[in-house]
From TrEMBL:
Segments carrying motif 'HIGH' region: 11-21
Molecular function in Gene Ontology: ATP binding; glutamate-tRNA ligase activity; zinc ion binding
Binding-site residues, Zn(2+): C100, C102, Y126, C130
Protein's organism: Caenimonas sedimenti
Superkingdom, natural source: Bacteria
Residues reported to bind ATP: K242
Entry cofactors: Zn(2+)
Coiled-coil intervals: none
Keywords assigned by UniProt, alphabetized: Aminoacyl-tRNA synthetase, ATP-binding, Ligase, Metal-binding, Nucleotide-binding, Protein biosynthesis, Zinc
Residues that bind L-glutamate: R8, F9, A10, P11, S12, E44, Y183, R201
Residue ranges of the motif 'KMSKS' region: 239-243
Annotated EC: 6.1.1.-
Protein name: Glutamyl-Q tRNA(Asp) synthetase
């Protein structure tokens, strides 16, 4: 029976799936099936310079080989830019976003002048230089004006979470200097447009949640339920990713790939076929994370 649950897997097509991204895909699919809901795939190709031609189609083939087929036609962010601009225009009209003329060097200099030259996850905490206007300089980007105070939310796996975005991140970019809309804005607009009720994704994305909640509130959108899954780590102890040389997922044996992904999610689902494994895994997931 289909419920009001709508989940999604949203990979960036910077290359084919690897073991870590299969874990996120599988977890989101299992959660949707355990809730009797719909599972969508959204190819997040908003950052076009980083995308690899054909990678989105390859990801869809890899998912299908593992029995993970979306319930609706896949969405592509590169075809939805008008929606992102409409949202940005609304934020600008409401005084919640503003144009920014600062380069990275400008931000570094401003932080150094304030004795605050520090990086957060290799990103500079924006000091609000252009909140008062561009002072005759051309706009390079557009930023969201982060309100002060903690943002609180509950993660289904990680528990209570909070972040003071204004202090820890600063006013974050909504549209970049190259004219492309930023991930934070695109994902919020897409989740709302697609009616997403539950977000299941890797723990490396948990840090984005507070920014996305602020945008949801500013745009009058609902906030989904969040569950951030364990990460697959490489030999160096860091998150397995395309950036650190993660090998493409070898799908000569999809059942083995699913079994390994299930181990990361602490799911035991012994079976002799992909279909039987997925069936058992749904029951194991429901027993652990049940409908919420």
């Amino acid at each position: 029976m289909i419920t009001g649950y709508r989940g999604r897997f949203a990979p960036s097509p910077t290359g084919p799936l690897h073991a870590g991204s299969l874990v996120a895909a599988l977890a989101s699919w299992l959660d949707a099936r355990a809730h009797g809901g719909a599972w969508l795939v959204r190819i997040e190709d908003v950052d076009l310079p980083r995308c690899v031609p054909g990678a989105g189609e390859e990801i869809l083939r890899q998912l299908a080989a593992c029995g993970l087929v979306p319930d609706e036609a896949p969405a592509w962010q590169s075809r939805r830019t008008a929606l992102y601009q409409q949202a940005l225009d609304r934020l600008l009209a409401a005084g919640l976003a503003y144009p920014c003329a600062c380069s990275r060097k400008d931000v570094e200099a401003a932080l150094a002048a304030q004795g605050m030259a520090r990086a957060r996850n290799d990103e500079l905490v924006y000091p609000g230089t252009c909140r008062g206007g561009l002072r005759g300089r051309p706009a390079r980007a557009w930023r969201f004006q982060a309100p002060p105070g903690e943002v609180f939310w509950a993660d289904r796996r990680l528990g209570p979470q909070s972040q003071d975005v204004a202090r820890e991140v600063g006013d974050f970019v909504l549209r970049r200097a190259d004219g492309l809309h930023a991930y934070q804005l695109a994902v919020v607009v897409d989740d709302a447009n697609q009616g997403i009720t539950h977000v299941v994704r890797g723990a490396d994305l948990a840090d984005n949640t507070a920014r996305q909640i602020l945008l949801q509130r500013a745009l009058g959108l609902n906030t989904p339920s969040y569950l951030h899954t364990p990460l697959v780590l490489g030999a160096n102890g860091e998150k397995l990713s395309k950036q650190n040389g993660a090998a493409p997922l070898a799908l000569g044996d999809p059942l083995q790939a699913l079994t390994q992904a299930g181990e990361t999610l602490q799911l035991a689902a012994p079976a002799d076929s992909v279909a039987d494994w997925l069936h058992a895994a749904v029951h194991a997931w429901r027993a652990r994370w049940g409908p919420t």
